[in-house]
Amino acid sequence: MRTGILFDLDGTLWDSSEQVVESWNRVLDKSDDVDYLITREDMFSVMGKTMDQIMEILFPKLSSERRTELLKRCCEEEERFLAEKGAVLFPDLEDTLKTLYKDYDLFIVSNCQSGYIETFLEAHHMSGYIKDIECWGNTGKEKGENIRIIMKRNGLEHAVYVGDTQGDREAAALAGIPFIYASYGFGKAEQYDYVIRSLKELPGRLGEVVFA
User: Fold this and answer.
1) What 3-state class would DSSP assign to 110?
2) Closest CA to 80 of 140, 32, 24
């Protein structure tokens, strides 16, 4: 049975912050009940959280219903924008996936909305490397539960999660699998089982991993 390598997306495989901010601000600029635009710093501050948590933090004065409506419009514009322009891939991404694909099954689990992972895969032609995906937008569940869903759905007995935040570490712990901290990403992880400073280090580091 093959081992699964599960990846976070934002801050681990790509940086879409500039594109997300630009697309969201197109919507916010036309919204009468929002009197400010967001920045990349705003977006970095909420990376790793679920989409409903992000909206509550960024737009605390709006009602829950209004935040839901605004999120839908922002996500639609974001996906159109990313599908057309893509975003910034971290160095050596495709070469790393191509190497790992020979020996491992590869997956993506993110706290994003439905359609976001698919946009990444399609815009950068990565679908052939990724066996399955899951996200908050599909299940309404947080990352640790979605890792469990992926593992059960694909019959994985052994897996590791690669991400860049403490939340990623906690998700891996909830799922009972090791965590590899991508220290080149956006976030910080206070605890981790292994660390990589770049994606190209990952294949070599996996030789040291004691899989759960």
Assistant:
1) strand
2) 24
Q: Name which of 4, 208, 197, 26 is nearest 104 in CA terms.
A: 4
d(CA 112, CA 49): 8
Phi, psi angles (nearest 5°) of residue 106: -110, 140
Q: Are β-strands 179-182 and 159-163 bridged in parallel, bridged antiparallel, or unpaired? A: parallel
pLDDT of residue 1: 65
Whether 114 has a pLDDT exceeding 70, the answer reads yes
Distance between CA atoms of residues 40 and 48, nearest Å = 14
| Domains (range + CATH), the chain | 3-15+88-206 (3.40.50.1000), 17-85 (1.10.150)
Predicted pLDDT of residue 88:
96
In angstroms, the CA 164 to CA 181 distance is 5
pLDDT per position as a tens digit, 38-78 = 999 998 888 778 888 999 999 999 999 999 999 999 999 99
d(C-alpha 73, C-alpha 9), whole Å:
21
Rounded-to-integer distance, Cα 21 and Cα 44, Å: 10
Give the residue carrying structure tokens 């916010």.
28
Task: Please provide the DSSP assignment of 2-40 as one string.
Answer: PEEEEE--BTTTEE-HHHHHHHHHHHHTT-TT------H
| DSSP designation for 127 | G
**pLDDT one-digit tens code per residue, 162-204:** 999 999 999 999 999 999 999 999 889 999 999 999 999 999 9
Beta bridge partners of 206: none
